[in-house]
Each structure stands twice: as C-alpha cells, then as structure tokens.
Design goal:
single chain; eight-stranded mixed beta sheet; two-stranded antiparallel sheet; 14 strands
Length: 480
C-alpha cells in the first residue's frame, strides 16, 4: 500500500511539473522594469536667436566668432571630438608594429575610397570650414562650423571644402540655430558615400519624416538623433566601428540604456538576449523604402560606352548595384573589429580583401548575433606591391576630371605616402556596416520561424553551430 501511495505521489508531482513549468516559462516576470523614458536627455527650452545675433557676416568663421561670445568653450569642445578630427586615438593592432590612428582622415573604405587629396568634396561633410589639404589648422576654433549642426537645414548647406554654399544667407542661418535635428545629422549621415542611402543599409532620407512602421522611435515618438546619441560637452555617444578598430563601451549607444533585456512577456524570447542582438529581431530588413548600394565596380569608370544612370553607372565612379528590402548578413559581434585594413597592408588579390571584419565568435560570451550590410567593391590596387591604392579623384587633376587611372593613382599614392610601382589592377573588397536604426514596432519584429526551421534566414553552421540550435541546443544551454 505504501508503495502504491509513493507511486501516486510521484505521478502527481510529475503531472504538476508538466502543467506548471510551461506556464511559468511564458508568464511575465514581476521584477521592476526600467522606465525607458528615464534614459532620455532633458530638453532645455529653445532660445530664440533672432534678436541676439546681428550681422552682417562675410564668412562662416565670422559666425563662429559671434557664437563664441556666449558659448566660449563650445568650439574647443568640438575640437576634442572624432566629428572634428575624423580619426581615433592611437591604437595598437596585432598585425602591425607601432600605434595607428584610424578614421576617415587617414584610412580608406570601399565606397569613395579615401579623402586624402579629395577634400574638395569629402570635407563638405566635415564640421569645419576650409579643410583643403594636410595644412588645415585643426587648432583654430573659428574653423569650427557651428551652423552645420545647429542651423535650420532649409537655410544652410555646405559646399566645396566645407565652406557655406554661396547662396546661403549667413545671418538668417545663424539666427535660426537650435538643438540638432534629424535634418542636421542626416545631411551627412543619410547621404554618406555620395548620395541618399548609398552607404548605410538603414539610414536614408525617409528618416527626415519617418512613419512609425519604419522606425518606432523616430517615426512613432519623433525622437531626434541626440535622444539616443546622448551628448555632453559636444561628445556624441555612438561611434561607427567601420571607421575605427576598437571602441570603449562608454562611447557606444545600447538598447539597454533605456530597455531591460528581459522586457519580453515570453521567457523563451528573453532567453535569446544573451545570444541575439536586439537589432537582429527588431530590424528585419534593410534597404527599406530606399534602395541601398551593395556593389561598386570602379574598374568600369571612365568609359563613354556605358549609359549613365544614378543607380547603375556613372562615368566618374563606375558601375553599381542596389538592393531593397533584403535580409541583412548576420555575424557574431562584440562591438569591436577583428581587423581593419590600414593603408599599406598587404593583400592577396586572388581572394576578397576585408576592409573590416567584426570581432566575436560563438565562443565569445560578449558577442551577439548582429545584423550587417555587407558592401562589396572592385577597387584599385598596386599589382606589384600588392596593397590597395587611394586614387586622387575630386581635385582638378583627379580622375573625375582627367579619367586617367595611372595619373590618379600615382598622385594619390604620393599624397598617402605609398610607393607606387606604376602597375595597377582591381580587386574585390568587402566592408561590414552595422545595422542599428529603423527599429520596427514590436508586432513587426521577427518571430521564431523566420530564423528556425528549414526555411530560416540564419546560416547556423557559418555562425559556429552544428545546426539549428532549436534542435542542437544553444551555446549557453541545451535549448534556446
């Protein structure tokens, strides 16, 4: 009889476990959640400047001098930022001896390639006036362009070498200043790489006035860029790793600045946050509403035999391919790079050269599966010395005027300090661009079958799994 009672008790406990455990898994936690609104910056009342600022102004520097009469430290604060220097602090890298600064100022990408000698067009997006060559004075505060970030973008625009466009009424622009808006930031960041949506997979001019279904923060709540990219003394959080090598966590923007990791009602979803970045589920596609460039072939540039079209071919730049509403590339990412190409690094032209490579793998507990746009290019290299070359393009003696590759590469090599053999070719390069904007409403996020199952979007084996972790188990426990 005792044996029968014991069996009955054990059976009852097993039955209760079968019923209660699944319920417990899906029930929301009772723990106190972070208030996301507490993470937003305080918006100070706007100060109307119409009666404060008097002209006339002959130059942008004249405006800066007036700004500094009240904002005495502002220009000096700007001069300590990467927005101003366009390069990182010196860092050591494992594949070269010594220390190196990394940024747009002195390195290359696989879009317009590099700025050295090409400042005429590239520094249109620098927050300064007159960066024409290596002699630009980064220590002169009146070279800082306050209007680029603070003027009404309908009243202000920048031209060659970062000077104001001739049509700009500097007094009207100066009197219009306010806190930065999406239009201020987007003038450069939405049009990076030479046009709308070219460089970033998820940043484009639709974000000037986005709908909620495109971006729940900017569209649904009218966030400005600085609501997430918190700013103190003009130091803006959130540096782009594509133009860097390593970035300190306190310089970055994280979803968890405002949101709990375990905010989901379903604990099975919360379990994913140790392995999957928020962006992976909440930014399901890129090139959304605006096609983004995915391929750039410089080798066809200069031809008069190919019909010009903004999205397929330009004589000065070569052939392009764009894509829209497509699935990102997924890779492990711990916030830094494993590799960032430095000028002079040797390449193997028989295989793609990585301009950058996200750091992290399945064994790195700090790495998450993260979405990227991968941009592939065919760009010039020295076929004897086997390293990438930065051509001179934007100057009057550059390729965009002469269409002479040997000359453009020779002058570019001289400016960048590389030896040029006189022999060149074109080689394939890849560049990873993190995807972190256009967060969709919760109901638009990916659900289980988008990633798991025979038709899932994840290449599990490439990520280091034996197979789908729903069958094989995750990296921290047997099942995710």
């Amino acid at each position: 009889m005792k044996k029968q009672n014991r069996v009955w008790i054990i059976g009852s406990l097993v039955t209760l476990a079968i019923v209660i455990v699944p319920i417990a898994i899906v029930l929301p936690k009772n723990s106190q959640q972070i208030d996301p609104w507490a993470g937003l910056p305080l918006h100070l009342p706007h100060t109307e400047h119409t009666a404060i600022i008097e002209g006339p102004f002959e130059t942008g520097a004249d405006v800066t001098r007036v700004c500094m009469e009240c904002h005495e430290d502002a220009a000096y604060e700007i001069m300590g930022t990467s927005h101003w220097t366009w390069e990182s602090e010196p860092v050591e890298v494992p594949w070269r001896e010594g220390t190196f600064t990394i940024g747009k100022k002195n390195q290359i990408n696989n879009f317009c390639i590099g700025i050295q000698g090409n400042q005429k067009k590239c520094t249109t997006c620098h927050i300064g006036y007159g960066w024409e060559d290596a002699n630009f004075d980064f220590e002169d505060p009146v070279n800082v362009d306050c209007l680029a970030c603070h003027a009404d973008s309908n009243l202000y625009g920048k031209g060659d070498y970062g000077y104001p466009l001739e049509a700009v009424d500097l007094l009207a622009a100066a009197q219009s200043v306010s806190n930065p808006t999406r239009e201020n930031c987007g003038a450069c960041h939405f049009d990076g790489g030479g046009g709308n949506a070219v460089k970033h997979g998820e940043l484009n001019e639709h974000l000037y006035y986005p709908v909620e279904n495109l971006d729940v923060h900017m569209g649904g709540l009218d966030f400005q860029c600085t609501d997430c990219h918190l700013t103190e003394d003009h130091q803006i959080q959130g540096r782009l790793v594509a133009d860097n090598y390593q970035i300190a966590p306190d310089e970055q923007v994280f979803c968890t600045n405002c949101h709990d990791l375990d905010l989901h009602e379903d604990e099975r979803v919360n379990a994913h946050t140790r392995t999957v970045a928020c962006q992976t589920c909440h930014i399901p596609d890129i090139g959304t509403q605006e096609a983004t460039k995915v391929y750039w072939d410089w080798s066809t540039a200069g031809s008069d035999d190919i019909e010009e079209n903004t999205h397929t071919y330009l004589k000065i730049k070569g052939s392009f391919e764009y894509d829209t509403n497509f699935t990102p590339t997924y890779a492990w990412f711990n916030g830094n790079l494993e590799y960032r190409y430095l000028l002079g690094d040797k390449i193997d032209p028989s295989k793609p050269t990585m301009i950058n490579l996200p750091a992290g793998d399945i064994k790195d507990p700090t790495a998450l599966i993260f979405p990227f746009k991968v941009h592939i290019a065919n760009q010039p290299y020295d076929s004897v010395n086997n390293y990438l070359l930065q051509p001179l393009t934007a100057r009057d003696d550059g390729f965009w005027t002469t269409f002479d590759w040997p000359s453009a590469l020779e002058i570019g090599a001289e400016i960048t300090g590389l030896d040029y053999s006189g022999e060149y070719g074109f080689t394939e390069t890849w560049m990873y661009w993190p995807v972190a904007h256009t967060v969709r409403p919760a109901e638009k996020a990916l659900t289980c079958d988008y990633c798991h199952g025979s038709d899932g979007r994840m290449d599990w084996e490439a990520l280091g799994y034996y197979g789908d972790p729903i069958d094989w188990g995750g990296r921290f426990r047997e099942t995710n």
